[in-house]
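fyi for ur records
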Amino acid sequence: MTPAKHLMKRLWTEDEAANAVEYGLITAVVAIALIGALFTFRQRIVGMFSDAADSIANRPR
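which gave:
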């Protein structure tokens, strides 16, 4: 059995390894959702930080 097949078999059959794979998949889905949200709201986020920077720069002294 090749090392890759042995690893896949072990990940599939061992509970701890299966849990690790599940957590990895959940993490990947959350990361993809976060990246998608950041791209979707990119202009709003940039505008929000630009407004905050302008407010700080133009504050009365």
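The mean pLDDT is 87. thats all i got for now
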